[in-house]
């Protein structure tokens, strides 16, 4: 911020937009402006755990208490996406920033898919999964179009509900000392409804129709194709397919494997069960009636351009 | 339309409460007054959602018209703004 102010003398978004629009081609290049935009982008990407600034996420997600991990997975993604849309789309969007975000999207999608396959702990798996999802969501922002911003907003909303669901399940399972993926064995025998809920959440993360996760990925990749990012969309599709391996592996563990040590069921409290029921209902019932979310996100995206 | 929204909302609320009981490994109809509350809240939520969606669609149409007029002004009338 200080470098941009030092190079331009402006802090207001309107003035920055007038100064920075097309600065790469007008000859008014300044290393201060470039470095300022780069540092702001890097700071934002650190907070949303985008590759290559994702290193902190798996260890912190694993070590923190589950409610804190849930907060860290959801709240920064929403707030930073809103922040970055205001600062970058309005103030300083250009080829520099677009290339940075394209690279980070592709790298996050690939790393999220590949690194999660090697995980043995549930929370670390969800951390890598959230890194991959940040890549998908950044795809929408990288486009720089109204459809891109709309798909980003849809993606954020659906990602927030899926992540709430996933971490509510992890929090319920933590009561029974479940830490490793192998401990989930035979959850289908001890608590079949919880196993079904977890499976639905994982299938939604994987982007399997007719769940909400499919709608968000569909819209994101269509927005990428619409803006001409013909490499980004196929990479997203391929990494989604690769990602299905570890999501479906969780379902396989719960339904078909025997655990190393049998975990006894402990009753869940009402708040968690209600939260799980509401978020699962949203994930399963979004597909037939997506129009309210589509209308409001279209409005939000348009208003950032007008 | 309001009748179907009410019915769908009530079913959703009832289903959510039964699902919540099932997650806690309780009988599905334990505390039936909670199911009634769920049905009521679900019906209210569905009706409000339908009304809100209609309003959001109206606002979106106005915004799209405004964007179209702004673009016509910029590209056809050579407006600098």
Automatic annotation (TrEMBL), chain A:
Keywords: Membrane, NAD, Plastid, Translocase, Transmembrane, Transmembrane helix, Transport. Residues 1-243 form the NADH:quinone oxidoreductase/Mrp antiporter transmembrane domain. It comes from the Eukaryota. This is Nad2. GO terms for molecular function: NADH dehydrogenase (ubiquinone) activity. InterPro entries: NADH-Q_OxRdtase_suN/2, ND/Mrp_TM. It catalyses: a plastoquinone + NADPH + (n+1) H(+)(in) = a plastoquinol + NADP(+) + n H(+)(out); a plastoquinone + NADH + (n+1) H(+)(in) = a plastoquinol + NAD(+) + n H(+)(out). Its main location: membrane. It comes from Olea europaea subsp. europaea. It is found in: Membrane; Plastid, Chloroplast thylakoid membrane. GO terms for biological process: ATP synthesis coupled electron transport. Pfam families: Proton_antipo_M (PF00361).
TrEMBL record, chain B:
This is Excitatory amino acid transporter. It comes from the Eukaryota.
């Amino acid at each position: 911020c200080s470098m941009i102010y030092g190079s331009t003398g402006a802090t207001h978004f309107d003035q920055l937009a007038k100064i920075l629009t097309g600065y790469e081609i007008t000859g008014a290049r300044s290393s201060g402006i470039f470095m300022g935009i780069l540092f702001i982008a890097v700071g934002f990407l650190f907070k949303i755990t985008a590759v290559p600034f994702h290193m902190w996420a798996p260890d912190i997600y694993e070590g923190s208490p589950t409610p804190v991990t849930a907060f860290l997975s959801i709240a920064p993604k929403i707030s930073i996406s809103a922040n970055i849309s205001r600062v970058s789309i309005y103030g300083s969007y250009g080829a520099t920033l677009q290339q940075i975000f394209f690279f980070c999207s592709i790298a996050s999608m690939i790393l999220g898919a590949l690194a999660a396959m090697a995980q043995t702990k549930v929370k670390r798996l969800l951390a890598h999964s959230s890194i991959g999802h940040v890549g998908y969501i950044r795809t929408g922002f990288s486009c720089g179009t109204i459809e891109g911003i709309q798909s980003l907003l849809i993606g954020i909303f659906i990602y927030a509900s899926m992540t709430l669901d996933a971490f509510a399940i992890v929090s319920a399972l933590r009561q029974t000392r479940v830490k490793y993926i192998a401990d989930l064995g035979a959850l289908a025998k001890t608590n079949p409804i919880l196993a079904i809920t977890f499976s639905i959440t994982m299938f939604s993360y994987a982007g399997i129709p007719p769940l909400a996760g499919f709608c968000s990925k569909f819209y994101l990749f269509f927005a990428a194709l619409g803006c001409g990012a013909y490499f980004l969309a196929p990479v997203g599709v391929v990494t989604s397919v690769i990602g299905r391996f570890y999501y479906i592996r969780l379902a396989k563990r719960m339904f078909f494997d025997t655990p190393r040590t049998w975990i006894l069921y402990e009753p869940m409290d009402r708040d968690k069960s209600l939260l799980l029921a509401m978020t699962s209902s949203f994930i399963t019932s979004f597909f037939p009636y997506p129009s309210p979310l589509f209308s409001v996100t279209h409005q939000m995206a348009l208003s950032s351009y007008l | 339309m309001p009748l179907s929204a009410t019915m769908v909302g009530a079913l959703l609320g009832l289903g959510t409460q039964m699902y919540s009981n099932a997650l806690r490994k309780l009988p599905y109809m334990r505390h039936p007054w909670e199911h009634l509350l769920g049905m009521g809240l679900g019906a209210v939520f569905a009706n409000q959602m339908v009304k809100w969606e209609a309003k959001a669609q109206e606002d979106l149409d106005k915004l799209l018209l405004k964007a179209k007029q702004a673009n016509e002004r910029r590209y056809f009338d050579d407006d600098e703004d």
